[in-house]
Amino acid sequence: MALLPIDLQTLFTQLTQVGKEQAAQKDALPVAQSIQGAQLAQKAEIRDTAVNETHDEEEGPEKAGDRARRGAERRKRQQKGAKTPVPPPAPSGDVVRDPALGRNVDITS
Question: Whole-angstrom Cα distance, residue 33 to residue 28?
Fold first, then answer.
């Protein structure tokens, strides 16, 4: 199959376009990598400047002291509760108790 002059003429006119396409394909990979690198850098910068939400502390060795202290306090309260409470003195008939007594402070002079 031989090339006819018209085929050669068509190929020569499209030669510049083929060269541009091949150059674009050759440069496509580095350009894509640079775009992806820029996106990663932007995400890292946003992550560094953002305020992170705090999370609840997890149970760890530093919490062991807290648990022991709470247990000791609970035992003390139970021991105090086990003792018979002293009944308050019986109010006499002429003494009136105000439930708000001692709870309000008058700051006016």
Answer: 9
The larger pLDDT score, comparing residue 66 to residue 20, is at 20
Distance CA 19, CA 33 (A): 22
Return mean pLDDT, the chain. Answer: 79
Q: Is the pLDDT of residue 85 over 60?
A: no
Q: Write phi, then psi, for 93 (nearest 5 degrees).
A: -65, -25
> Mapping DSSP to helix (H, G, I), strand (E, B) and coil, where does residue 49 land?
helix
CA-CA distance, 22 to 13, in Å (whole number)?
Answer: 16
State the Cα angle at 49 between 45 and 53, rounded to 5°: 125
- The DSSP 8-state label assigned to residue 100 in this structure reads T
Question: Rounded to an integer, what distance in angstroms lies between the CA atom of residue 26 and that of residue 41?
Answer: 25
- HSE-up (13 A, CA, CB side) for residue 1: 1
The dihedral through the CA atoms of 37, 42, 46, 49 has a sign that is positive
User: Do residues 32 and 40 make contact, with C-beta atoms less than 8 angstroms apart?
Assistant: no
